[in-house]
Amino acid sequence: MAMATGLGTSFCSLPSLQRLTTATTNAASFSFFKLSSPSSPLFVSTRLPPSNRQHYSATKASSSTTFTESQDLKVNTITTKPIEGQKTGTSGLRKKVDSSFALISTVKVFMQENYLANWIQALFNSLPPEDYKNALLVLGGDGRYFNKEAAQLIIKIAAGNGVGKILVGKDGILSTPAVSAIIRKRKASANGGFIMSASHNPGGPEYDWGIKFNYSSGQPAPESITDMIYGNTLSISEIKLADIPDVDLSSVGVTKFGNFSVEIVDPVSDYLELMENVFDFSLIKSLVSRSDFRFTFDAMHAVAGAYAKPIFVDKLGASMDSICNGVPLEDFGHGHPDPNLTYAKDLVNIMYSDNGPDFGAASDGDGDRNMILGKQFFVTPSDSVAIIAANAQEAIPYFQNGPKGLARSMPTSGALDRVAEKLNLPFFEVPTGWKFFGNLMDAGTLSICGEESFGTGSDHIREKDGIWAVLAWLSIIAYRNKSKKPGEKLVSVSDIVKEHWATYGRNYFSRYDYEECESEGANEMINYLRDLISKSKQGDKYGDYTLEVADDFSYTDPVDGSIASKQGIRFVFTDGSRIIFRLSGTGSAGATVRIYIEQFEADVSKHDLDAQVALKPLIDLALTVSKLKEFTGREKPTASKESVFLNVFNHFG
């Protein structure tokens, strides 16, 4: 792939290299799609071995197809009908790509006839014409399976609907943060952008695909737009498709079709320019180029691999072997591009080896999440955002006048709250969802924010940003060591974290996921808890804990007055401890019950406890209060995911 960076052999394990070789070989047999001439029925054909070759329709012209000429551009109006299952959420539309290639009737979701085309057309039907007519839109994605084929279809529908120009990342590559950055840089002309990604979920013929639309300030489309998109998918009757050939996505440059043009751009340059304006690259380079400092970045064979070499190697002087899993692959090397202790196992093994690097980090499928580690030391996402906020003014030029305000999602630990209090900054606790941060940023009241699910960011863009978080940590480490001479012991990641705990206290935190619970039992449990909190009052005793407040979290947006209710059941105790219950998903696969446990500890002598040991009394209380086993029949978190994560977490402390 053109965006590939070199793989290091010093830090990357042999199994990682073997997996890359296998994935690269297998990629040749994956299905690729090419649209035929729009003047004939549009089919998608796989490039499989001849015996397996079948034809599948992404957009198919019916007998009632009409043609119009508009500004030297022929537009086909194709008859279609609504397709079920296009409910659009805050992160757009995500589905699993079907792996069956036997019959056209078995191909589901986005590769199904008109499925993606319907949604894209419904989006244009939902936007005010002034937002896209003769305007500039951005298009890119995380490099996963089906992106390049989807990009060709999106380009043609955009042209058919009167868009003036589409700006596309080379090879269809643009990280989610980069899309937001490009929209904001070109805000005089760019009114939004398409992001082809299923975030941190796996890719490939048998796995996930998704698409979302970011609006004019680079933020995820608001519910007012996503609700309209879904409404229009229920009544759609035609698709407007320009009669133009596929565009070569592999070459930077401009291709014109009448008054419509497609510009292929370097996916890194605008984002890199923004990072250079946010951070002191010379300060970071002084750290990265030291002979006594080593770091590794795990791109997880995802989109961040396209950015790793230009930023960390070419600009900051890191060695090539600092980049692990640096080649973006359509199936992420058969991996799960979720940067946590479970799925970023290559990085964990490197960082906990006897001769591991001083600093390690990973990013996810579309580049908006991150994980931070020191040598044999894991930094929780809740601690990470708090430490960035506490050190931002002195270590990061963008915040030289101090942050405007801080915010976290409700389930995230209260570590950030204590930084806001000490620095006398406005603080906001919001529901889960980055859009809530965006409103505050647009109002000029928020600078730094984060979520417990490995998302961290600031108001430089309107998305969470994985590489930004890595550069923020490198800036803090560099600032703490700028006066250190060769041979002197460096201030380490663990030193920085433990110093932070000594100043602010430690918030022990963990999350347990119970996936695929029976929906009926899970809902009964939540209703039971709602009844319990309605009867609770301040001062009630729960074992050794005294209740401060129990509620079902509700948030009134201070910017637009909108209200988000029933966002999670909270038991908050007088010592700062919290137990939170949230329910997500009630479909055929069942519901996921999430339990968040937090214990504040001010005593420095107790800051080195194993998190699960420190949290055990609260964990036991949560299971007792919720009657989780009685309602769901579950005794342990999901073995395939969360319990594995917790076992790794337990092992490393």
Briefly, what is this?
The protein is α+β, with helices and mostly antiparallel strands.
Protein topology:
Elements: H1 14-27, E1 44-45, E2 55-56, E3 66-70, E4 73-79, E5 93-96, H2 115-126, E6 136-141, H3 147-160, E7 165-173, H4 176-185, E8 190-196, E9 208-214, H5 223-233, E10 238-242, E11 253-257, E12 260-265, H6 269-278, H7 281-288, E13 295-298, H8 305-315, E14 323-324, H9 345-351, E15 359-363, E16 370-374, E17 377-379, H10 381-395, E18 406-409, H11 415-423, E19 427-430, H12 434-442, E20 448-451, E21 455-458, H13 466-480, H14 493-504, E22 506-517, H15 519-535, E23 541-542, E24 545-552, E25 555-556, E26 563-564, E27 569-573, E28 578-587, E29 590-601, H16 611-626, H17 628-632, H18 642-652
Parallel strand pairs: 6-7, 6-8, 7-12, 13-14, 13-15, 18-19, 18-20
Antiparallel strand pairs: 1-2, 3-4, 4-10, 5-9, 8-9, 11-12, 15-16, 16-17, 20-21, 22-29, 23-24, 24-27, 25-26, 27-28, 28-29
Provide an overview of this structure.
The protein has 653 residues and is of the alpha+beta class. It has 18 helices and 29 strands. The strands form seven sheets. Strands 5-9-8-6-7-12-11 form a seven-stranded mixed beta sheet, with helices on both faces. Strand 28 and strand 29 (590-601) form a beta hairpin. The model is unreliable at 1-11, 13-57, 61-70, 97-107 and 639-653 (pLDDT under 50).
